[in-house]
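Lab notebook, bench 4. The sequencing result for the construct came back, and we need a structural model before the next group meeting so we can plan mutations. Quick request posted to the team channel:

Model the 3D structure of this chain.
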Amino acid sequence: MFLRGLEMDSISALAKTIPEALFMLYQMTFAIITVALVAGAVADRMRFSAFMIFSALWLAFAYVPIAHWVWGGGFLGGAGALDFAGGTVHINAGVAGLAAALVLGPRRGYGTENLAPFDLSMAVVGTGLLWVG
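Done. Here's the predicted structure in token form:
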């Protein structure tokens, strides 16, 4: 817990060809991206502090168990399922985003205000980052 026992030269049994610290960063990238998917669904619908609490709870009680269904010797992995791109956790994030958007309702001002991007150049940069990613 909290990276106890992680050393710079240690190797994970799950990724024998790279340092364990790099494997940890790789796994954290999946966790961060899945929370970002939910963030897009609740933008302008939820306070930032509420979203931070939701993110911590969702990561602990939804992401981690579902990620271990396939990765780390879970029951789906034991049944022969392969998940190289994180499909199980990305589907989970999509469903969580949809459920949150349905529960929270439409964005404030939807249909009555102009919700155009504040800075179109930043929208283009964000789209480019998503496309490259």
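The first strand starts at residue 11 and ends at 12.
Will bring this to the meeting.
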